[in-house]
Design brief:
two-stranded antiparallel sheet, 194 residues, disordered N terminus, globular, 28% helix, Spore Coat Polysaccharide Biosynthesis Protein SpsA, Chain A
């Protein structure tokens, strides 16, 4: 099996549409780490796995375009949260499954993503780190889009709560798994500086 074997089955969504409050309002995906934007590190890991790489961004689309096949943005203004980005991504995705990752998790690796893909294709899957669900490491079948849209219209804003009724499968990871760190504060970014 080659590194690109999952291509026919998987779209990938990188979520970069947040407000960046814990980063002082900065666009997290574009913050430099090891000389490149955080999103570039994640994109380098996932690019061999798909021919359908989507980035959800609500700012700086001209900068994100270089890293994606497609850009999407939230249907509602004022940064309504990651579920909005997931819905936009699913609506654009070309493959039956969509991996969802945060733009500020540059230590993710392909073995973790392949393990998530192996749990599909009909049910959603999500990393669970020492019993805690990690929604920014998820696999969502595209056929769930209508159900997730309905949950949104009913007021749901949590990716986890929206997926739980659909037989969410866990990918168990140990506490402190370094692949799962999100650089979502200046302190975390500084702690992992070169």
């Amino acid at each position: 099996m080659t590194a690109t074997a999952p291509t026919a089955h998987c779209s990938i969504l990188l979520l970069a549409g947040g407000r960046g409050q814990r980063m002082g309002g900065a666009d997290k995906g574009l913050i430099a780490w090891h000389g490149q934007p955080l999103v570039a590190h994640v994109q380098a890991v996932v690019r061999p796995l798909t021919d359908d790489l989507i980035i959800s961004c609500n700012r700086n689309p001209e900068r994100y375009q270089a890293f994606a096949d497609h850009l999407v943005s939230d249907a509602q203004a004022d940064f309504p949260g990651p579920l909005a980005g997931v819905l936009a991504g699913l609506a654009k995705a070309r493959h039956p499954q969509m991996l969802v990752l945060a733009c500020d998790a540059p230590c993710v690796d392909r073995p973790l993503l392949r393990s998530l893909l192996a749990l599909g294709p009909r049910q959603p899957a999500m990393v669970r780190e020492a019993g805690q669900w990690q929604p920014m490491f998820s696999l969502i079948p595209r056929h769930l889009l209508p159900a997730l849209q309905e949950a949104w219209h009913q007021g749901e804003r949590s990716v986890l709560r929206a997926l739980l009724p659909h037989g969410l499968l866990p990918l168990e990871c140990p506490a402190g798994d370094p692949r799962l760190v999100n650089f979502n504060t200046p302190a975390l970014l500084q702690a992992h500086a070169p």
